[in-house]
Specification:
Number of helices: 11
Structural class: alpha+beta
Strand content: 5-15%
Oligomer: single chain
Helix content: 40-55%
CATH superfamily of the largest domain: Butyryl-CoA Dehydrogenase, subunit A, domain 3
Radius of gyration: 21 Å
CATH architecture of the largest domain: Up-down Bundle
Number of strands: 9
């Protein structure tokens, strides 16, 4: 199958790159992580991404207030965000909106959805762990109101989100809920290798919640949101790996040793060539997953798993190779190479590890006989 971006998708890619080069330039990466470890992103960038580019609703249907674009366009956007290691609340807010749109077929949460799409409210999704129990349990108290207890260990933008939606085990299966009093939740920032994306831990102690959608559809909603989240992480991995390749090639062409550019030496040349192969393979696999998921939601499990495993390994290998090509400067705090490597290692563990996905794909294939 041959696939390439159409004219509109290329324009979207160019728009995103131009915007991010202006608003989130690479040379400020290290400075931002040094000055604000808890929030290493510019809040104004998120506001503009929502208000001017309307990215939260990019893949949301037009009849629900979104732009009506597809998952390929979403992949293009997050690939560009990955190039600059953007770590703001766009992903978490977009996933919260995706949960509401998918679960709330009666449009009962239209006001909250509108606030999320406009960026007026930052959202977070708890209980989003891949292919394992969410760690949250839901039950009804004596008055019949729903409450949730437990801990969600890894929540994108969990410490700063204005509203929290979640998946919890209700005893009869998973259910979707909106937290009634998010300001009362016990939240804490997680220390992690990646310095560019804040992640929180949220403890729920009989927190009052409101169900979103029906119990019958909740499992499908969770599968959809998990698949979209994994696809976005995959796109970021491709973007970051592509930027690492560019850094390697630029350095190899400009750095000289023994009167020659180091890129002329076979060892460096082959390292860059190997990285280029990995980046193109990751990009092709990721775009295919976005296209396949857009065409048939029933394919979300195998294609997204495959893309995540391929892109995870590619991003780590390319980031590590970039540090080697850079030599001494690649090991310094002042150069952003270590931030790309940190993000690559962390993203490999996010939304399912490489070997978890490969084991599950193998199990599915063996089960078919």
């Amino acid at each position: 199958m041959f696939f390439e971006l159409d004219e509109d998708q290329e324009q979207l890619k160019d728009l995103m790159r131009s915007f991010l080069q202006q608003e989130s330039p690479e040379h400020t990466l290290v400075q931002r992580t040094e000055n604000s470890l808890e929030r290493p992103h510019d809040v104004r960038v998120f506001d503009r991404l929502c208000a001017e580019l309307e990215l939260v609703g990019l893949a949301i249907p037009e009849e629900r207030g979104g732009s009506g674009a597809g998952l390929v366009e979403l992949f293009v956007v997050f690939e560009e965000l990955g190039r600059v290691l953007y770590g703001g609340p766009l992903l978490s807010t977009m996933l919260a909106a995706e949960l509401i749109v998918t679960a709330d077929t009666e449009d009962d949460f239209a006001e909250l959805l509108g606030q999320l799409l406009a960026g007026a409210v930052r959202g977070a999704v708890a209980g989003l762990e891949w292919n394992r129990p969410s760690g949250l349990t839901a039950s009804q108290d004596e008055s019949g109101h729903w409450i949730v207890s437990g801990v969600s260990d890894y929540v994108f933008d969990g410490t700063d989100a204005d509203q929290v939606v979640l998946f919890a085990d209700s005893g009869d299966g998973v259910r979707c809920f909106l937290v009634d009093q998010p300001e009362a939740l016990e939240r804490s920032a997680r220390e992690q290798l990646d310095l560019t994306r804040p992640v929180g831990r949220i403890r729920f102690d009989a927190a009052p919640v409101t169900p979103i959608g029906s119990a019958a559809s909740a499992a499908g909603v969770r599968e959809r949101v998990v698949a979209v989240a994994t696809l976005c992480i995959t796109a970021e991995q491709v973007g970051a790996a592509r930027r690492c390749l560019e850094i390697s090639v630029e350095h190899a062409a400009s750095r000289t040793q023994f009167g020659r550019a180091i890129g002329s030496f076979q060892a460096v040349k082959h390292r860059c060539a190997d990285s280029a192969v990995l980046v193109e393979a990751a990009s092709a696999t990721g775009l295919h997953a976005a296209w396949a998921l857009q065409q048939d939601a029933g394919q979300q499990d195998p294609v997204v798993r495959s893309a995540k495993s391929v892109c995870s390994e590619a991003s780590v290998k390319v980031a590590a190779s970039t540090i080697q090509v850079l030599g001494g400067i690649g090991y310094t705090w002042e150069h952003p190479a270590h931030l790309f490597y940190r993000r690559a290692i962390t993203s490999r563990q996010t939304m399912g590890t490489t070997w978890q996905h490969r084991d599950d794909i193998a199990s599915q294939l063996f089960a078919r006989g």
